[in-house]
Amino acid sequence: MVSGDTELNLGRIRRYQHELPEWEHISKAWNLLENYSGIPPDEIEPHLRKVRDQAFAVFNYPCLGRWRFLDLYITTHPAYPELLARTKAGAVLLDAACCVGQALRQLAFDGAPQENLRGFDLRRDFIELGYDLFRDRDTFRVPFATGDALDPADKGLSGLDGTVDIIHAAAFFHLFGWDEQVRLGERLVRFFKEGIENAVVLGRQVGTPEPGGERGRYLHNEGSMQRLWDEIGERTGTRWKVRAELSEEKDTLEGGGEVVRSLIRYEVRKA
Question: Cα-Cα-Cα-Cα dihedral of 189, 202, 58, 6, to 10°?
Fold first, then answer.
């Protein structure tokens, strides 16, 4: 048994890591900063530290504190070649809860036309810090919106309704419980173009072999994610097919020890 203070300190350790992670987890982001942003290699690490700490001060998401936002996993998603091909052909991709817009920069660097990319986040501060991180305020022309996808009274995202073909939603659904996830899915469905046949939502988030609630959140395996999208479909008059894969990842904690996370990589296609 540990004291309340110790539990808080352990939570802080798990949320925030001072040292950069292993190279395999940041190599793509490093390459992006060097070859897209044009930042000299010897300036990248201090630049990353500065902007990361500014972002963590906005909100202490573990993906920021533990550098996970630099793991541009999207390039390894089986659907990534499709995303590039479809956006080059005119399809519009929306990055939901885009944080500092790292996935959008990777897509643009890999050839996706900026005019076919969109992003939104709850906090404008993250979008502004994205310009600082990638040093592209005058050249990155992707439109961003801000708003609360769970607040029906918030009209900040209404301009995106009926405009997109593909939605990337990573590390987003797992922040919420089941009911909120259903409402979130309903909101995402409204972003799709009317009558679109090849709509897809894809991403990666924390998962679990045994689905259920945990600290106010609901974590999924493939079966529970299908049930979620069945309910979303019933509420929106649509049908969806989920394909998902669970994997495990070890996080090494500063000071010793490891935390094993289950991750679920998924794609949800209109049936």
Answer: 120
Q: CB–CB of 140/131 below 8 Å? A: yes
128 CB-near residues (< 8 Å, 6+ apart): none
Domain assignment of residue 225, yes or no: yes
- Asked if residue 39 belongs to a domain, the reply is no
Q: For the residues 88-100, what does the mean pLDDT come to?
A: 98
Domain count, the chain: 1
The predicted structure's pLDDT at residue 111: 98
Confirm whether 195 is domain-assigned. yes
Q: What is the pTM of this model?
A: 0.93
Query: Can you say whether residue 194 is alpha, beta or left, with left for phi > 0 and alpha for psi between -120 and 50 degrees?
Result: beta
* CATH code assigned at 122: 3.40.50.150
- Residue 124 is part of which domain span? 72-270
Whether residue 196 contacts residue 188, with contact meaning beta carbons closer than 8 Å, is answered with no
Helix ranges (H only) for the chain are: 4-15, 23-35, 41-58, 62-65, 80-88, 102-109, 124-134, 178-191, 222-236
